[in-house]
What we know:
Elements (H helix, E strand, L loop, with lengths): L4 H19 L6 H23 L8 H22 L2 H12 L2 H11 L3 E2 L7 E5 L3 E4 L2 E4 L2 H11 L17 H6 L7 E3 L10 E6 L8 E3 L5 E3 L9 E4 L7 H4 L4 H14 L4 E3 L3 E3 L5 E4 L6
Parallel strand pairs: 9-10
Antiparallel strand pairs: 1-7, 2-6, 3-4, 5-8, 6-9, 7-8, 11-12
Helix pairs in contact: 1-2, 1-3, 2-3, 4-5, 6-9
Amino acid sequence: xxxxxxxxxxxxxxxxxxxxxxxxxxxxxxxxxxxxxxxxxxxxxxxxxxxxxxxxxxxxxxxxxxxxxxxxxxxxxxxxxxxxxxxxxxxxxxxxxxxxxxxxxxxxxxxxxxxxxxxxxxxxxxxxxxxxxxxxxxxxxxxxxxxxxxxxxxxxxxxxxxxxxxxxxxxxxxxxxxxxxxxxxxxxxxxxxxxxxxxxxxxxxxxxxxxxxxxxxxxxxxxxxxxxxxxxxxxxxxxxxxxxxxxxxxxxxxxxxxxxxxxxxxxxxxxxxxxxxxxxxxxxxxxxxx
Length: 290
């Protein structure tokens, strides 16, 4: 099937973006990733200027080939890195489930990882409350979200939240085939960007998280699949979307709390405390990472 120069160019840019997203987090690849992405952006800027000038020949085959050449070079860098001994050692460390070995090996494979000091009390995952359907953004029903929460409270059962956007394209996904990937969580409910989140006590996760210095996220490579999350709900929404919504936050969140209570799931406010196994309370969820 013939592909137009415009489609080929757009596809080449998309693949370069995917490759950059992978390479920039790998130790020893980030500099090459940034250089390659900058080269691709320069070609893209040239094409955009030509289009604004009304030139019908851009983007052309030569533009697509330029982006593809940049991607090919970056793909070679990533391929060599993934074949390194460090990746093999990380797989061995994960098989051993030795927390210290996992921490050392993951820092050799991934860039900008550090052991957080102090270790956070909780690790959180925000839930997407609004989803696009038929070209429109809709609010998920409390009954539906309660069912998803019940299914996702075990960390190993649902490493990605429901209806999460697709990740890298097939080409990049195949390249990553054996690379151990982390479960990525946030260090506090407020950091999730959502009014509803799951929150796991770090001490229940079997291995201490690493801190990604670029994003502030917590990375877990061997979490305990049986660790159960608490559910936290914000007292008030910070997103202005709720002000324009026909569905009020108070009514919607009250309905969600009721649906969760029916399933025997306890709910905590973002500013309150997580339960501990001995019945006492841990430090407040707000400001867990100091």
